[in-house]
Design brief:
By secondary structure, the chain is mainly α. 84% of the residues lie in helices and 0% in strands.
Length: 167
Amino acid sequence: MELINNKKGVLLMFELLEELKREILVILMAAMPISELRGAIPLGISLGLSPIHSTIISIIGNMAIVPILLKILNPVMNYLEKTFLFSKFIGWVKRRTLKRTRDTIKKYSLLGLFILVAIPIPTTGAWTGCIAATLLKVDYKNALLAILSGVFTAGIIVSTISYQVFG
């Protein structure tokens, strides 16, 4: 009897570790630039997580990086722009982001930042929103609120689309 309980315990532990591994993969995907939650939600569903579970952990993973990015992007970009290896890339990122976001954010203010993050199309999202907010010197708290709201909205949109595809 003891041996059976030990085997069940080991199997349960392996199942738990497998679930945790899938969740960590989804959270990391959501925190990464480019893919963000637009890639993380479908990934979670394809790994066997429920659409709601995948959406919740993707939103958490995407939101978790935002406060950090808003604090460190300016000094990091300024430093890297002075290096030989990254100066051209950082200059390109700044020019591209400003070209694509300046008019919208200036015209619509925080609503523009929210829309930039909330509409789930390629090259928009929390990372682009954080870069734009940093370059346009948007107040930290206002940028944080607009970007987090945008991430939540994008999560609902992507979840709905993913559920239609995978459901």
